Amino acid sequence: MDLRKIKKLIELVKESGIAELAVSNGDESVRIVMPNTTQLASIAPISTDTNRRESPAVALTRDDSTSLVAPMAGTFYRAPHPEADDFVEQGQSVEAGDVLCIIESMKMMHEIRAASSATVSQICVANGQSVGTGAVLFRFL
Question: What residue spans define the domains of the chain?
Answer without folding.
Answer: 3-33, 39-140
